[in-house]
């Protein structure tokens, strides 16, 4: 089976979100940054503007909640920066998934990966991840696969990937 796609920023963010779910620490960090810190920042700002002061310094009373509100923006900015820094080339990627190995090619790279090198796979509603190491994976967006191809991929993964 051959898949051709360009890994977009949206695909990268989906892959990183799925990767974060594999560790409770990483997942709780994302929850803190996207939900808890902004909610706490809103509460602190509301409390501050209602007359209460949580600090003796007025600048800290305003800057701390604003920092908490900006945490999701910082995380998104950092992920976007990582996406740009880790790209080995722009353009289309081609992955040939065969019964004995996986071939990958893009404008600047080519590789062959034996099934024994893949430690596990993970999936959600947007992407599939093939783990080569605990923090190194190949992301395959589901948007490039038909339903039949997804079923075939799952069958290949279950047949060939043996957890380390």
Describe the structure.
With 164 residues, this protein is of the alpha+beta class. It has two domains: 79 residues, PH-domain like; 64 residues. It is 49% helix and 22% strand. The chain has four helices and seven strands; from the N terminus they run βαααββββββα. It has a four-stranded antiparallel sheet with strand order 1-2-3-4, with no helix packed on it. β3 and β4 form a beta hairpin. The longest helix has 29 residues.
Feature tags:
4-stranded antiparallel beta sheet; 49% helix; 4 helices; alpha+beta; PH-domain like; 3-stranded antiparallel beta sheet; 164 residues
In short:
With 164 residues, the protein is α+β, with helices and mostly antiparallel strands. The chain contains 4 helices and 7 strands. The strands form 2 sheets. It has a 4-stranded antiparallel sheet, with no helix packed on it. A 3-stranded antiparallel sheet has the order 5-6-7, covered by helices on one side.
Low-confidence stretches: none
Radius of gyration: 21 Å
Count of helical stretches:
4
CATH superfamily of the largest domain: Pleckstrin-homology domain (PH domain)/Phosphotyrosine-binding domain (PTB)
Strand content: 15-25%
The side-by-side strand order for the widest beta sheet comes to 1-2-3-4
What is the CATH C-level name of the largest domain?
A: Mainly Beta
Which fold name corresponds to the CATH topology of the largest domain?
PH-domain like
Mean pLDDT: 86
Question: Shape, please?
Answer: elongated
- Count all strands and give the number: 7
Level-2 CATH architecture of the largest domain: Roll
Q: Encode the helix/strand succession as letters.
A: EHHHEEEEEEH
User: Mind summarizing the main beta sheet?
Assistant: 4 strands, antiparallel
**Estimated structural class:** alpha+beta
Q: Helical residue percent? A: 40-55%
N- to C-terminal distance: 25 Å
Count of the separate structural domains = 2
């Amino acid at each position: 089976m051959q898949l051709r796609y360009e890994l977009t920023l949206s695909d990268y963010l989906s892959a990183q979100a799925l990767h974060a779910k594999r560790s409770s620490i990483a997942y709780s960090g994302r929850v803190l940054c996207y939900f808890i810190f902004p909610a706490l920042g809103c509460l602190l700002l509301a409390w501050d503007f209602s007359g209460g002061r949580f600090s003796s310094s007025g600048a800290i009373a305003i800057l701390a909640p604003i920092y908490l509100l900006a945490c999701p923006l910082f995380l998104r900015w950092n992920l976007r920066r990582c996406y740009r820094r880790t790209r080995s080339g722009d353009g289309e990627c081609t992955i040939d998934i065969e019964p004995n190995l996986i071939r990958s090619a893009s404008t600047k790279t080519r590789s062959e990966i034996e099934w024994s090198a893949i430690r596990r796979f993970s999936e959600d509603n947007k992407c599939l991840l093939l783990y080569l190491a605990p923090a190194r994976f190949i992301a395959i967006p589901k948007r490039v696969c038909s339903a039949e191809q997804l079923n075939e991929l799952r069958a290949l993964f279950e047949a060939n990937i043996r957890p380390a």
